[in-house]
Write a structure and sequence with these properties.
alpha/beta, Rossmann fold, eight-stranded mixed beta sheet, 11 helices
């Protein structure tokens, strides 16, 4: 698990899937703010809302468009028309917020649409995917299609147990998955480090896996205020404690990895082809 997968297809973005074992751990907020921070450092960033029918990214920003990623996947509109521009030049493929919660169950994406998605994605350096919490088949498809999975956890027993179960399931489907643990809402760096060390020990002992330490996001009252205002925490001035850690995380991900490309098909091909074929 320690090595990054590289790509021989020129122009495909480095992809990061943000996932968690349970809801309510701040996954979507982290995905959005990480994408904004990556864009602030000069990366061309595409944020994909993979929570079809229950999208949060547009709500967190208070923006939306005529079309959604569901429309693009169904061929009802060109991919480019479903995209909307966010802060700092960030480009978003938003999900619908209601009406299509069963979309994944009947999804059959035409090969031409998959190719269109890949061509569209080739214009970006980094692709950030906000996925559904948990271990449903469709979530697994989106996470293991990425170059790196970022598992978000909070210092709560249920969140930790669910994160471990999620990692176990992901590794069953992709043993070479590159995964990192990000502790959110931590009271201190020491608390986060202790949680990571225990989690990493469990992963190593029982799963034979190495999980990278992606740091932590401190408990910060400005996070809730930013959500209420529908303004990314990443744009607060001066940066709050949580925003500073997001800047650090973006630097880690965007620095060494933004220029790395995968060997083989791109993110959308891996996710949608696997889903269509039922590949394990």
């Amino acid at each position: 698990m320690g090595q990054k997968r590289k790509n021989n297809i020129k122009g495909l973005p480095y992809s990061v899937a943000i996932t968690s074992g349970k809801g309510g751990v701040g996954k979507s907020c982290i995905a959005l703010n990480l994408a904004v921070e990556l864009a602030k450092t000069g990366n061309r960033v595409l944020l994909v809302d993979g929570d079809l029918g229950l999208g949060n990214v547009g709500l967190l920003l208070g923006i939306g468009g005529e079309w959604t990623i569901e429309d693009a996947l169904s061929g009802r509109c060109p991919v480019a028309e479903a995209a909307i521009e966010g802060p700092e030049g960030l480009v978003i493929l938003p999900a619908a917020t209601e009406g299509e919660t069963g979309f994944w169950q009947t999804l059959a994406v035409a090969p031409a649409v998959v190719e269109e998605l890949e061509v569209f994605a080739s214009g970006f350096d980094v692709l950030v995917s906000d996925t559904v919490a948990g271990i449903a088949d469709k979530t697994v498809d989106l996470v293991i299609a990425a170059d790196e999975a970022l598992v978000v956890v909070t210092p709560e027993p249920t969140a930790i147990a669910d994160a471990y179960a999620t990692l176990k399931t992901l590794l069953l489907h992709r043993p070479d998955l590159v995964a990192g643990l990000l502790v959110n809402m931590a009271d201190s760096a020491e608390e986060a480090a202790e949680l990571h060390d225990k989690f990493a020990e469990l992963a190593s002992r029982f799963l034979g896996a190495e999980i990278d330490n992606r740091g932590y996001i401190p408990l910060d009252r400005y996070v809730r205020e930013a959500v209420k205002r529908q303004v990314p925490l990443a744009l607060t001035v001066p940066p709050s404690p949580a925003a500073q850690e997001l800047m650090r995380l973006a630097g880690d991900l965007g620095g060494a990895n933004a220029s790395v490309r995968n060997i083989g098909p791109g993110f959308f091909t891996r996710a949608l082809t696997r889903q269509a074929d039922g590949v394990d």
